[in-house]
Amino acid sequence: MQKINFNLIMKKLKKIYPSTEKTTLNRMRTKPDAFKVLISCLLSLRARDENTEKVSKQLFEVVNTPEELVKLPIEELEKIIFSSGHYKKKARVLHSVSQELITRFNSKVPNRKEELLSIKGVGPKTANIVLAFAFNQSVIPVDTHVHRIPNRLGWVKTKKPEQTEEELMKILPKIYWADVNAIFVQFGRDICQPVSPKCSTCPINKYCKRIGVERSR
Ligand code: SF4
Fold first, then answer.
1. Is residue 153 within 6 Å of ligand 1 at its C-beta?
2. Is residue 28 part of a domain?
3. What pLDDT score was predicted for residue 138?
């Protein structure tokens, strides 16, 4: 395998996306509240970041703790989170996750991956985002962008986000772990989009394996 110059590629991207505060969850890093990070992450699943931001803000005007959330009637919760999409399912998940936090973890969000994953409705991506953004732990939160882009670039060859996380932790220098999610989320929205990526104007196209494959066709 050809040696990948991670420093060069990440520096180029960081120049274009100097602020890693642009995504909703990243903004929470400045004043982390583990409960709010967890709830926002659950709201962000299959939702646009702008919607997550708006809906999280509206919800946290009404509830700030697991107790307050379970006391909120489910119909009212559904109304508040309606625009995040899949609102019925999400409302039930938010209720049950909050209930588990109360009964199993004394209303606190646990800071160990196994414990987070033991909560029904919390998957590996959510667990890693909570660990990274609320507890500042060295993990790589892999969402759809962080899974897709390294595969296109040829850094990894994986089928599932969990495999991508594992592989990235082996190859990506640790100094980029905290920022890679925010950088790739912005890059994935602007340029390396899921359908029709803007490869001809992509600032890192000469380091991309996908471009090499296209050219050799
Ligand atoms: S060249 Fe295309 S596929 Fe490769 S990183 Fe850039 S936009 Fe994504």
1. yes
2. no
3. 85
